Amino acid sequence: QVQLVQSGAEVKKPGASVKVSCTASGYTFASYGITWVRQAPGQGLEWMGWISAYNGNSNYAQSLQGRVTMIADTSTTTAYMELRSLRSEDTAVYYCARGFAVAAKLDHWGQGTLVTVSS
Amino acid sequence: EIILTQSPGTLSLSPGERATLSCRASQSVSSYLAWYQQKPGQAPRLLIYDASSRATGILDRFSGSGSGTDFTLTISRLEPEDFAVYFCQQYGSSPTFGQGTKVEIK
Fold first, then answer.
1. Cα(B34)–Cα(B55) distance, integer angstroms
2. How confident is the model at residue B72 (pLDDT cuts 50, 70, 90)?
3. How far apart are CA A94 and CA A86, in angstroms?
4. What span, in angstroms and rounded, lies between the C-alpha atoms of A83 and A96?
């Protein structure tokens, strides 16, 4: 069965960077992409971007351009999302999800990774 | 950016009742709309995609309808496990989500 398993919770100081991993199994990794979505405490869902596991092409939300990088490693079937210059408002649960394209339904989700930004 | 507006914000119903949730897009998304269910402490789960297709394993008490700018998620008879938050998502262009509708027990 399709599974996406994310790395554990992180606590970071403002200005630092965080890198969250998402290890996929149960399907052909390179046939899909990975979308990253975040959810601030008590809030809705925010689309962050998508990366193709086939060719590494990526598309990021305009609001995060310049601070976010997504990569996909086909040798380990793991996707990574790095967010830099962290601010308190980046405190959120970060989810990875399987998506066929930039604009696609998200049919399988990771369990989420809480990132807390606090001095 | 396409804005999705969900209504109502909260729906208070009893088990066995019918739930009707609305999602309105600021411009047409054709049928590129999905619905997700999220329970506390859990990741969202895909229920409906392409406006009206049920995802794998989703029971037929969940149904979706609409196209263009107006969409509806209907839960025909609420079961205890259906009380949750529901989000719509458009993928007609750069994806966006609605703010969610909470279905709570009356």
1. 10
2. very high
3. 14
4. 14
Q: What is the pLDDT of residues B35-65, one digit of tens each?
A: 999 999 999 999 999 999 999 999 999 999 9
Q: Which of B:13-72 have CB within 8 Å of A?
A: 32, 34, 36, 43-46, 49-50, 55-56
Nearest residue to B70 via CA among B4, B11, B2: B4
SS3 A24: strand
Facing residues of A99 across strands?
A33, A106
Sheet of A18-25, strands arranged across? A3-6, A18-25, A78-83, A68-73
Rounded (to 5) percent helix, strand, coil in chain B = 5, 50, 45
CB B78 within 8 A of CB B17: yes
A95 and B43 within 8 Å at the Cβ level: the answer is yes
Tell me the C-alpha distance between A112 and B42, whole Å. Answer: 8
The closest of A22, A92, A107, A68 to B50, measured between CA atoms, is A107
